[in-house]
């Protein structure tokens, strides 16, 4: 019983003297996305629609690349699990995966440059 009272006293004292401070969301990993959303909301309605179309197209393209890369990763893992993996096939799959990753990065960079040129919004490389 004394232990419970002691624990309760510690909990009550720490919570009673704690400050009620707001959370700083600027350090959150999604802070950049919310800043972009604010900049997009400052655009004219027609420009917002253009941005939305461009963004959806870029994200669809990114999703297709990710799915293709994931499929190649699965093929590589399947080949490596074989008793005698075909090294030539693995190298070929790795080269194909590298090309897809390069293509994905290139298309995202193109999207970011288009957004910067059309709307003056700089998008960080984390997207």
Automatic annotation (TrEMBL):
Keywords: Signal. It comes from the Bacteria. Residues 80-98 have a biased composition (Basic residues). Residues 1-18 form the signal peptide. The keyword Signal applies. Residues 77-102 are annotated as: Disordered. This is Uncharacterized protein. It comes from Ilyobacter polytropus (strain ATCC 51220 / DSM 2926 / LMG 16218 / CuHBu1).
């Amino acid at each position: 019983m004394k232990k419970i009272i002691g624990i309760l006293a510690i909990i009550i004292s720490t919570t009673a003297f704690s400050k009620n401070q707001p959370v700083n969301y600027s350090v959150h990993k999604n802070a950049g996305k919310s800043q972009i959303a604010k900049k997009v909301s400052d655009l004219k309605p027609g420009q917002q629609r253009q941005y939305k179309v461009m963004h959806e197209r870029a994200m669809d393209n990114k999703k297709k690349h990710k799915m293709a890369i994931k499929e190649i990763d699965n093929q590589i893992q399947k080949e490596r699990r074989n008793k005698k993996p075909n090294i030539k096939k693995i190298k070929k799959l790795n080269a194909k995966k590298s090309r897809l990753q390069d293509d994905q990065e290139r298309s995202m960079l193109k999207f970011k440059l288009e957004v910067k040129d059309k709307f003056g919004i700089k998008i960080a490389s984390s997207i």
